[in-house]
What does this fold into?
Amino acid sequence: MKQFFTILRFELKNYFTNKVFVGTTLFLVVVLAAVLFFPRISQALDSGPDPAPDAPAPTAQDEPAEEEDRPRLLLWSRDPADAAAALEPLTAAFPEYRVEQTEASTEAAVRDQVQTGAAAGAFVLESPTQYTYLAENLSLFDDNAARAQAALTDAARAQALARLGVSPGEAQSVFSLEVTGTAESLGKDQRQTFFYTYVMIFALYMVIMLYGQMVASSVATEKSSRAMELLITSAKPVSMMFGKVLAACLAGLCQLGSIFGSALLFYRLNVDFWGENPLVPSLFAMPLSLFLYLLLFFLLGFLIYAFLFGAIGSTASKLEDLNTSSTPVVLLFVAGFLVVVFSMSSGSVDNPVMKICSFVPLTSPMAMFTRIAMSTVPAWEILVSAVLLAGAVVGIGVVAARIYRVGVLLYGNPPKPAALVRAFFGKGLTAGEETAPAESQKLSRRRR
It folds into this structure.
């Protein structure tokens, strides 16, 4: 146990004195401060000094001709009567545009005006109930077609009612009726939980990938530099592995705590300036119970992958071999992440694939947390998932420790799985498999 704490302190010191680790943390804190203080700073810059009392008031000649400055929307139909009937409702629906009934003789001429930029867009009426909206480049947020459809629908209905003998005033009173309602969720409202769930899942993904690779790289570096041969003379390999893994876990928690804690502090200082923005407040609306679930699944998920990466790093004699050895674990983790993200995007986080992933230890840290955050999950499912994950952490930790004990003394080409299995069960290695130098083998036998 003393060896374990010695290694733990040493590894933590390496993390907290690492310039890249500290610099990255400070950089992210500064970026969050700039983002969350932006509304306050922007408002302070906008509130400039009051204009001088002697400043002359702008005259009518100085004011821009608002009617002429507005972009044009053309209205064309083969039947001029249809265009004339649609002009008034379209004008009311687009106050920021100048809606004009064009005198172009053909539809092609209208298209040419839009393509050359002479008009911002055009509506071509095939009939009072059918139209085509023309735009040079249809923007992602262009809602002109939907607005025109609503306006032309009301106009067509009014004309139909007029033919039936209903006066325009009566028709307008009917169209002005509004239905109001509210939506009440008896479980979780995914519109409120989506953003902070996505942020937390992405943070979990980045931390596991980053620190898992750091654990594997640390082990592989010590092994390739032959420093491992000296380290195992004074510490047990199992203590070394657990010390490295738990140090990486604590360092990751400290870094995340610093980043998210700073973000929460900066938001609290500027909460009044973010009142009209629905996105940012929703990111900080995570309930305490959900945060505790996040902490539970984060710790267990981090440990299970850190043990795997530590075992993989012990089997690599060179850093160049590390990427190849860790590819299966990385691909499995990425596949679980993509399943979660696609399920969140579809709005169905309780689909069969997500339910299965919720009970598979290698994917449950992300899948079960997402289901808890965005749906109603029975308590027994959460308990079973957590127990399976905790049992997998213990089991994989024991297996990884034995692989680590054998792997740190294997040199040369990466050992084949069969060789690791034989060494794992104490059956030794066959001839032709490259192993550690004789001195390291003696030290290993002496420690056993």
